[in-house]
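Quick start: read one record
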Amino acid sequence: MYPLSRILPVLATSMLLSTPAFSADARSIALGGSAIANAQGVAGAVENPASMMQMKRNGDRFHFRFGISSEVRDTGSVIETLTDSANDNLVSDIETQIDELSNRQIQCDPVFGNADDICLSDTQSLSDLANQFLNAMNNIDGQSVEAQASGDIGMAFTKVRYPIAVNFTVMGSGAGTPDIAESDKDYIREFANLLDNNSLTLDEIANSTYLEADALGIPLGVQQPEDVLLSSGTTSSLLRSQLSISIASTINVGGYEVDTGITPKFSSLAAYHLDANIQEELDDDTDGLADRFEDSEATDGSFTFDIGAAFDLKDYAFRVAAVVRNLIPESITTESGFEFETTPQLIVGGLYKTNKFSFTGDMALNKAKVDNFETQKIAFGAEYGSRKFALRAGLSYEGARSSDQTALSVGFGLGPLQFGIRGSDVYTMESSLQLAYSF
């Protein structure tokens, strides 16, 4: 019996680390993703470089940030299925029982016996396992998982004539989708159906595609997985090291003092992509998944920049802002021809602020890709407090997703410690924790 444990990496090829091409900020996450009109600190400079002029007017001199962030998107129930404790030993258990089935001697006469003669008994446990395995296959079939993680460090100087910020980010980016063949489901379904009722009859064997009985007392014939299974999966990943340098100034436009800023971004990229199938994994002469994935590496450098602007409508105590991110499209193609793209996106935002409360809103005006992660977000947030202590909450709608589009977020600021979390469920969630100083 060929180990089914070799098959699992293909069925579940989805769990990869990934991040967007801009750093996720704990404060903006807590505000639903809205902060470009009220950006603060180094993270604010990354989100909207024009925000540094407001920091300068506030009397801030120096900002420091160190943070980590992550995001997981599960379009179905892949993560739930793979992390369910009930499935912990599913593969090894079903492998063992199919192996035992193929070694059990037939207790009926295939030549002279009757159709309802019982050829094997005590088969219910394998039927139950097969049903459980079939449910798992259905849950992950065609569903994608995208996971995100990043770490960054940066500083900003906002008391100088032209405020400047420098931020360095290390990121990974990837996604995976398993494609379960219908014939593979049929293979497992036969074990589930034929072995039900704790027995296997001669008629059931005669009508089976994958079982056969030749003579009384010999082992049951069972087609092996390597002769049947055809499922496949795709997985891709992008590793990015990015240095961004933001600079800001204020210009007069039609009587309005407009804050402006630009952020050139320099990246080193390493891209990977693999199309895998079970037949390859069952071939002893085929290199392992990890080796083939590493061999697909393609490296390159890239350059793009963001531009931002903001101005105050003083008669209405309202601030308006806009950012164009990744104005120069970026792309890298793997050895297999798979392309990662980052495309421009225009985001507009607004801020209404009182003594203790602030209300923010951002809207992406077009759909864009960020290392192949599609996004077009509308976000709203509310914040109460001061630099010493602040409570935050938000609501966002991700128009680029086909499911889990609406998410709630919460977070807090406790001096330099900032935390934010946003999610529609436990398997579609974004979070960030950082230390951010401004003085």
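Residues 4-76+145-177+235-438 form a domain with the Porin fold (CATH 2.40.160.60).
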